[in-house]
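Appendix B. Chain record.
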Amino acid sequence: MALVLTGHTGWVSSVAFSPDGRMLASGSDDDTVRLWDPTTGRVLRVLEGHTHWVNSVVFSPDGRMLTSGSTDHTVRQWDPVTGEELRVLLGHTSGVISVAFSPDGRMLASGLWDGTVLLWDPATGQVLRILEGYMEVVSSVAFSPDSRMLASGSWDTTVRLWDPATGQPLHVLKGHQGMVLSVAFSPDGRMLASGSDDHTVRLWDPVTGQVLRALEGHMDGVQCVAFSPNGRILASGSDDHTVRLWDLATGQELRTLEGHEGAVLGVAFSPDGQMLASGSADKTVRLWAIHE
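Structure tokens predicted for this chain:
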């Protein structure tokens, strides 16, 4: 059984746990961010300020800041404890689809509808550099655990790897037959996962750019992927309304989590790996007990 969190009046497109696991954030096309107590399912706070769909939410590594990216062309930074809006990052030329903090906390990446990736100093709100090369939407961005690599997934079916310090491209990963909708690094940085509209998840070696394995089983596009904290399990959410859990050592499917009545658009493991959150087009967030 899953705990079902209700309150959003639009699709839930992104979910993220705070580093201490005491808070869960969700972003929705109802233009709001909600903060929840994952233990009780109670809503703690509703953050209002965006004027369009909130596509992505992420906590800073120290947990003191929550960042949200929206189709309203802004990234907003919030104090998750008080709900106060700290800063609005302006300068995006189109809607923000994905945001990610570097693990060292020194950089924030935003992936845009116009195919660019912006790198920001989260402390000052200044743009550090702009990464260009895509002709299509950048749907997802993720930093490697050592903060030395940035991955971006795009509707052009490729994953690109960048050096965020210089902005130089490192690899273009090709193999998906559909739009890449999500990317995530494993906790040890040795593996990169990408979810695609082609119904598959691909696992890559980020150093060489070689594909390690394709995970097949979803009946529709894969919207989101997330590694468990111990790196043994991958969760993937799909337009087929399911979340699937995969054994990364073997590539075998461990379990299918069913209950959502719409596409699963966001997944996130709790820091202790005992819980998985999923956000869906059915306007709910579900919390699942995971036994790693």
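Further analysis of this model is presented in Appendix C.
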